[in-house]
Design a protein that fits this description.
single chain, mainly beta, Immunoglobulin-like, three-stranded antiparallel β-sheet, 37% strand, flat, SHSP domain-containing protein, HSP20-like_chaperone
Length: 143
């Protein structure tokens, strides 16, 4: 008897009972998201600190900014081999994160750097000179 088949059957039954998205609510509890991110806001800037230990090739991380979303894709690989693992708390593997920003940011003025296992990203608020406010004419209706 294969215990993993029973686990798969159990999960399938739970999906049927609770709905397919039921387990998504527990993803951050069961498996913490990587990479870990700190975000700081001032009036016109957002600074993101992203923990990516062991990054030696900056081409292994892709960072995209689209208006109010910061997207980060890459791999965390500590590159240690040999010996028996006694404790392994540093989360590793392929990651993809999308972070909602508190306001729209400029795409032409983004600073990113890497130091001591941390990616520093500085984003600047998009301040538009054009107004999207339009006057709406009101018509007087006859009785």
């Amino acid at each position: 008897m294969d215990p993993f088949k029973q686990m798969a059957d159990w999960k399938k039954n739970m999906d049927t009972f609770f709905g397919e998205n039921f387990w998504n609510e527990f993803e951050g509890i069961i498996k913490p998201t990587i990479p870990q991110i700190n975000m700081y806001q001032t009036e016109n800037e957002v600074t993101c600190l992203i923990s990516i230990p062991g990054l030696t090739d900056l081409n292994k991380v892709d960072i995209y900014v689209d208006y109010t979303v910061l997207e980060i894709n890459g791999v965390i690989d500590v590159n240690h081999s040999g010996g028996t693992v006694l404790n392994e708390e540093i989360l590793q593997g392929v990651f993809e994160r999308k972070i909602n920003l508190p306001f729209p940011v400029r795409s032409d003025k983004i600073k990113a750097s890497y130091r001591d296992g941390i990616v520093f990203i500085q984003l600047y608020r998009l301040i538009s000179n054009t107004s999207s406010k339009h006057r709406v004419p009101v018509k007087l209706l006859a009785d």
